[in-house]
Structure formats: structure tokens, C-alpha cells
Amino acid sequence: MSGVMARAPRICRREVYQIGHVTVEVIDDPLTEATFALRPGLAADAVTRRPLFSGFIEPGMADALRRLADRVEQLEEGLG
After folding, report:
1. Of 3, 68, 75, 77, which sits most exposed with the smallest number of CB within 10 A?
2. 41: closest CA among 50, 31, 33, 32?
């Protein structure tokens, strides 16, 4: 044995949310800050499913998403 210790694999929790034709992926990594990625949800192959945008979860995002959800709900009520 060489004396080199194997590292334990990093376990990141990935959550996927499908919103229309956009996929939102939330990555909760215990060793770094939580991040998110927006991906084209209906892309045919892995190349075109690369993130359109990604970033870190920041304070205030949950409130902004709730306001968006409230507005979308209002718009859904008007659908016939």
C-alpha cells in the first residue's frame, strides 16, 4: 500500500424542475455554495442541453421566485 488515502466521493444533491420548455437544475454541494443552471428542457441531445445560464443561489432569490410564481398563477387563472 502506498500510503495515499483515497478521498471519499463528493455527494452533491441535484434537483431538477421542469418549467415549460426550460429545465432548472439546483445543485446543493456541501463543500461549496449552492448553484443553479437553466437548461433547454426539450433539447434533443446532450450538446444542446448545456446550461444557457448558471450561477450561485443568492439572498433574495426565493422572494423573487415567489413573486414570479404569484404572477404566473394570475395569468393561469385567465386561461380558458
Report:
1. 3
2. 50
C-alpha cell at 5: 488515502
Condensed to tens digits (0 to 9), the pLDDT of residues 34-60 reads: 999 999 987 767 677 889 999 999 999
User: pTM of the entire structure?
Assistant: 0.74
CA torsion, ordered 41, 78, 68, 18, to nearest 10 deg: -20
CA separation for the pair 68, 70 (Å, rounded): 5
Q: Among residues 30, 37, 35, 20, which one has the least CA distance to residue 75?
A: 20
**Cell triple for 28:** 446543493
Q: DSSP letters along the chain, please?
A: --SPPPPPPP--EEEEEEETTEEEEEEE-TTS--EEEEEETT-SSTGGGS-SEEEE--TTHHHHHHHHHHHHHHHHHT--
